[in-house]
Amino acid sequence: MSRRNTPTGGPSQRQRRVGELIRRVLADILSQGRVHDPALDAMHITVGEVVCSADLRLATVHVMPLMGDADITEALRLLARHQGELRHLIGREVALKHAPELRFRADETYDRLDTVRRLFSDPAVRRDLDAAGSAEAPGAPEPDAT
């Protein structure tokens, strides 16, 4: 097993644990308005996920404004502008040798969920799922093996 990844190629347990800790701390910092920028403090931003590099020196932060009319581009710009201050605040609360560099990205989880919902509501897909479900339903007669 490589030191950089788990056998499946995904993040290690430590990377996931540190990412979740950073996510919680960053969410608290943003919700408490501890950044010295009224525009950023006025935005309600959710921190969906933090993905850390193998050496924990880089953290990719997936964010999304909570208000529907808030501009994700503006939120990303403000967060990037205050990356140093946010990194400093995280470093004071998280016991790591080095506070990671923060990179902010739009959280596309909700967009992917909408796409999946649209697919499942498509009549052709529903028909195929219903047909597959009835063929595998418990109690369905087994085909003869003769």
Describe the structure.
- This protein has 146 residues and is of the alpha+beta class.
- It has a domain at 13-107: 2-Layer Sandwich (GMP Synthetase, Chain A, domain 3).
- It contains six helices and three strands; from the N terminus they run ααββααβαα.
- It has a three-stranded mixed sheet with strand order 1-2-3.
- α1 packs across α4.
- It is flat.
- The N and C termini lie far apart (47 Å).
Brief summary:
By secondary structure, the chain is of the alpha+beta class. The chain has 6 helices and 3 strands, in the order H-H-E-E-H-H-E-H-H. Strands 1-2-3 form a 3-stranded mixed β-sheet.
What attributes characterize this protein structure?
alpha+beta, 3-stranded mixed β-sheet, 6 helices
Q: Tally of extended strands?
A: 3
Q: What proportion of the residues form beta strands (DSSP E)?
A: 15-25%
- Mean of the pLDDT scores? 83
CATH architecture of the domain at 13-107: 2-Layer Sandwich
Kindly provide the name of the CATH class of the domain at 13-107.
Alpha Beta
Morphology call = flat
Oligomer: single chain
The value of Rg in angstroms is 22 Å
Q: Whole-Å distance between the termini?
A: 47 Å
User: How would you classify the helix and strand content by structural class?
Assistant: alpha+beta
CATH topology of the domain at 13-107: GMP Synthetase, Chain A, domain 3
Number of helical elements: 6
Largest sheet: 3 strands, mixed
N to C succession of SSEs: HHEEHHEHH
Task: Provide the spatial order of strands within the biggest beta sheet.
Answer: 1-2-3
Helix content: 40-55%
